[in-house]
Amino acid sequence: MRVATNAYTDSMLNQFNNLASKQYTLQNQASTGLAVQAPSDNPLAMQNTLTYLADNATQQQYSTNINTLQSRATSIDSVLQSLQTISSRAGEIATAGGNATNSQSTLNNYASEVNGLINQVVSAANTKDPSSGQYLFGGTASGTPPFTTTTDSSGNVTAVTYNGNSTVNQSQIGTNLTTSVDIPGVNNGPTGSRGLITDSQSGADFLNHLIALRNNLQSGNTTAISNTDSGNLQKDENNIAYQVANNGVQQNQLTAAATFASSSSSSLNTMISNTSNADLINTMTELNQAQTAYQAALESGSKIMSLSLLNYMPT
């Protein structure tokens, strides 16, 4: 009688390999804390994990965009507050300067103050973003100063040139949601974002209106100051007030978007953890069981392999 010992050997080796492989997998899970490290571990779980990771990367990019916009919006708001103060003072000067009883000396003093306001507006309109070093109010042409001036022999600004454009950059802050906090310095078109200094939609033309006010003060033309300059400067003040309010709305939108992106990222991290991380208690329990089974298999195999063929031969 022949005994097929190969059948025992092949069966035992197969069992040893399976138990060893299971031990290796469980030991790896215990050491890394990950239940899924390769597609073969759990194809569906791996697919879900990769999807969650991609979604989380997108949410993190949204958060980065939002942080950048929030910083830029804060810088813009600071400039808007300064311009609002300047605009308010210009309106006061126009009201006072329109009084026909003013002496020319008084009007000249007002004109000198307006010269200072003009320079302040130009400086504010040429403000750079501290974070990026780009100019805030040049539209997408943010690498050069948006406004350049022409001055007379006394250094007084007589004309202003805008070197930017009316296009603003858009940033994505959520799924199918883009926004911009930028304000072009000038927009002479019928559509698009309202210009900060000059805007045809609102009738604002702050610098040129200030220049006209100064010139009328210097020439003593109180009628023009009262009938024209005051009304024009009111348009500028209204436009700046609109920009301040719009900036506030945008900052609130960014705050809400930041909260949502952070919450989404946190949820995705939990989903990634639940999908790919190992349950260490169960893993250690299964590892202990696998080690016990492996040891038992070794002992059984040792006994079987130690048997002689004589044990199976008839006596």
Description:
It is a single chain. The chain is 64% helix and 8% strand. The chain is mostly helical. It folds into two domains: 53-270, f41 fragment of flagellin, N-terminal domain; 278-315. The strands form three sheets. Strands 5-6-7 form a three-stranded mixed beta sheet. The protein has a two-stranded antiparallel sheet with strand order 1-2. A hairpin with a 5-residue loop joins strand 1 and strand 2 (157-162). Helix 1 (5-32) runs antiparallel to helix 6. The protein is elongated, with a radius of gyration of 38 Å. Residues 29-33 have low confidence and may be disordered.
What would a concise description of this structure say?
The protein has helices spanning 5-32, 43-97, 104-125, 206-219, 222-276, 280-306, and strands at residues 147-151, 157-162, 171-174, 177-179, 186-187, 198-199, 204-205.
